Amino acid sequence: MTEKRARKPFTGWHMTAILVAFFATVVAVNFTMARLAMSTFGGKVVENSYVASQQYNKLLARAEAQDQLGWTPTVTRDPDRRVRIDIRKDGEPLADLSVGATASHPLGRTPPLALRFVAAEDGGWRSVEPLAEGRQRLDIRISRGTDEARYRIDLK
Hints:
Elements: H1 12-40, H2 49-54, H3 56-69, E1 71-77, E2 82-89, E3 92-93, E4 98-104, E5 113-119, E6 125-130, E7 136-144, E8 147-155
Antiparallel strand pairs: 1-2, 2-3, 2-6, 4-5, 4-7, 5-6, 7-8
């Protein structure tokens, strides 16, 4: 005949151990996720959100004026890591432009780099400084006389 083994009773210590293990896991996961979130994004989009909200209508008017210019930029990266910008209106390259840009990592991992551009033979613009490998965000400023356009383009 088989002997039945007596089960140990479920006590308060067992429940305490289960609760402590559960909450320790939750706290550890929360701390890990918070640390990863803080290390990858600084959280700042604008310097002062109130001031930015007061400028909203002005920014909309500037965007409308920029759209009416009809300028279309095409941004690429040369094999030697220089940025190449072609600016066209109605399919034709534009001349007599002033072109500048600031390159930065989208998550702020590298400091911003000001890029200077020189005119290329075929009507485009090429940066003097090479651009780091990887993702980069370009804030481009193009002007001709009193006309000005600003573009934000992500390069991969």
